From TrEMBL:
EC id: 1.3.3.3
PANTHER family: COPROPORPHYRINOGEN III OXIDASE, MITOCHONDRIAL, OXYGEN-DEPENDENT COPROPORPHYRINOGEN-III OXIDASE, MITOCHONDRIAL
Site (described: Important for dimerization): H179
Localization per record: Cytoplasm
Protein name: Oxygen-dependent coproporphyrinogen-III oxidase
Family of this protein: Belongs to the aerobic coproporphyrinogen-III oxidase family.
Pfam families, alphabetized: Coprogen_oxidas (PF01218)
Binding site for a divalent metal cation: H100, H110, H149, H179
Pathway the protein acts in: Porphyrin-containing compound metabolism; protoporphyrin-IX biosynthesis; protoporphyrinogen-IX from coproporphyrinogen-III (O2 route): step 1/1
Annotated active site: H110
Keyword Zinc: no
Organismal lineage: Bacteria, Pseudomonadati, Pseudomonadota, Betaproteobacteria, Nitrosomonadales
Length: 304
């Protein structure tokens, strides 16, 4: 169980993703390196690099954050399903990213790869990996959804044919706003609490998922970033971004864990879109491209 190897991979992945997105956007990400000394409330030392782009040429806001934090007492969100680990010391590390393009025809994307390790008093270690990637379009394109899901499937193909349908359904179930009775987007893959069959295999699966993100998303971003749009499309994009905010603040386990564990707020909330709009009881007119998003894309289906 070599957490140092995981950390090295995550840092390399972060830099690879940032470099590639800088090529697409033409503007540099800000690289904000931070470090925290031993604190209180169960939190020990922490360090990370938050890479952020705002008001880019293509990306209105995007963030790729690496963090490695440690504590002497597990936060409640991490022991909800593992009460036997309450009180254990722990460490968590991961790369999490969200891209919010300016063009409404270009989809938002999210990806995350992470590892959590608990240290028992007897010296034994308990680990699990988690992560995935998902796509949130504002205007649907079937070929985009098929491409994204195919790359997700490819990332898991070397391991077990049962993984993709399992992780795809997990994604559909997780990225669902129960208070709205609707999915956040067209899904992708998601997994959590993965420790089987062993550390090396679980780590390899995580690496493959992380390594496939750019090939899943960048072709879609490049294809849609220059599509002409007007105020109508922009208005709908801002409205749908509200669902993204609702999910992150109400449901997302990573956000809740970060805030509960007294994490670095700026890094935790860098996934938030820069501009959002809410309306009271609004619904798109039938037969419009906006209604098609709900009818054709915000429904779980097997895209590949």
């Amino acid at each position: 169980m070599d957490s140092a190897a995981v950390k090295e991979y995550l840092l390399e992945l972060q830099e690879l993703i940032v470099d590639r997105l800088e090529q697409v956007d033409g503007k540099k990400f800000l690289r904000d390196k931070w470090e925290r000394a031993t604190g209180s409330g169960g939190i020990g030392k922490g360090e990370g690099i938050s890479c952020i782009i705002e008001e880019g040429n293509v990306l209105e806001r995007g963030g790729v954050a690496f963090s490695h934090v440690q504590g002497d007492k597990m936060p409640a969100s991490a022991t909800a399903h593992r009460p036997e680990l309450a009180g254990c010391s722990w460490e968590a590390m991961g790369v999490s990213l969200v891209m919010h393009p300016r063009n409404p025809y270009a989809p938002t994307s999210h990806a995350n790869v992470r590892m959590f390790m608990a240290h028992k008093p007897d010296g034994d270690k308990v680990f699990w990996f988690g992560g995935g990637m998902d796509l949130t379009p504002y205007y649907g394109f079937e070929e985009d959804a098929v491409h994204f899901h195919q790359i997700c499937k490819n990332s898991l193909a070397p391991f077990d044919p049962k993984l993709h349908p399992k992780f795809k359904k997990w994604c559909d179930d997780y990225f669902f706003l129960k208070h709205r009775s609707e999915p956040r987007g067209v899904g992708g893959i998601f997994f959590d609490d993965m420790s089987e069959p062993d550390f090396d295999t679980a780590f390899a699966i995580q690496q493959s998922v992380g390594d496939h993100y750019l090939s899943a998303y960048v072709p879609l971003l490049e294809k849609r970033k220059d599509t002409p749009y007007g105020e109508r499309e922009r208005d709908f994009q801002l409205y749908r971004r509200g669902r993204y905010v609702e999910f992150n603040l109400v449901i997302d386990r990573g956000t809740i864990f970060g805030l509960q564990s007294n994490g670095r707020t700026e890094s935790i909330l860098l996934s938030m879109p820069p501009l959002v709009k809410w309306r009271y009881d609004w619904h798109p007119e039938k037969g419009t491209p906006e209604a098609e998003l709900y009818d054709k894309y915000l429904v779980p289906k097997d895209w590949v």
